[in-house]
Design goal:
Rossmann fold, three-stranded parallel β-sheet, 46% helix, mainly alpha, 235 residues
Length: 235
């Protein structure tokens, strides 16, 4: 194990189970690359019911979403989490309400993804995710969006199937067609902006290079934790 500073404990503010589980597994599996065999930072997770989040989102209550996130954040801080992440792109719409009252600093999923896109030299990025995300300003307006009909189809697949761990071949094919259409419009990469999408889409089956928001966030948290980055600040 590294003889450097002890890694920061990471707190995961979970929303949907499949995306949060993938984020947790990534931190634990890839921690060994930094810390040695079987090692990873301390990780704590808290989740309110996804139904509570969906109820707030459907009534456009982003203060309510923030209240749920902050309740999780405070519980995680109380058990020692030093930095926080949320493996859910959609509810980052509430971050403006979260940050003024946060007990610990956060890594922002879109900032992590966009930094990786820039590092790879991608200039024309497509965005996939729930309709709530794709219609939002979490990612810049310059990111290409699917058509309204495609947004509805992707949203249905995510909310009716992927969040339940249901992976239908015909639905995967539909998601891949959406990515094909973004490529035809000139995109050179696509953000997998639902944290469940990497469970069925990656560079092996997509026609564009993928930006896996779930694993990119997990890796950014690992880097920050292992470096014991005291420069982290709530923004």
């Amino acid at each position: 194990m590294s003889t450097g500073p002890r890694p920061h404990p990471i707190g995961i503010v979970a929303c949907s189970a499949e995306g949060a589980s993938l984020c947790y597994r990534t931190i634990c599996a890839e921690g060994a690359q930094w810390l040695g065999p079987h090692a990873h930072p301390e990780v704590a997770m808290h989740s309110h019911s996804l139904a509570d989040y969906v109820a707030c989102i459907e009534r456009d209550d982003w203060v309510g979403v923030a209240d749920l996130m902050l309740d999780s954040a405070r519980k995680l801080a109380a058990v020692g989490a030093a930095l926080l992440i949320c493996p859910d792109n959609t509810i980052h719409q509430a971050m403006a309400h979260v940050l003024p009252s946060t007990p610990r600093p956060w890594l922002h999923i879109a900032e992590v993804v966009l930094a990786e896109a820039a590092a790879r030299g991608h200039r024309h990025i497509g965005l996939t995710g729930t309709r709530w995300l794709v219609d939002s300003a979490v990612y810049p307006a310059a990111c290409a969006r699917p058509t309204p009909e495609q947004r509805d189809a992707v949203h249905r697949i995510i909310m009716d199937e992927l969040v339940y761990g249901v992976f239908k071949p015909e639905s995967v094919a539909e998601l891949l067609r959406v990515i094909d259409s973004l490529r035809e419009r000139g995109c050179d990469a696509v953000v997998l902006g639902c944290t469940e999408l990497p469970l069925v889409i990656d560079d092996r089956n997509a026609s564009l290079p993928t930006l896996d928001s779930t694993r990119l966030l997990a890796r950014a948290a690992l880097r920050a934790a292992v470096r014991a980055d005291t420069a982290l600040a709530a923004r």
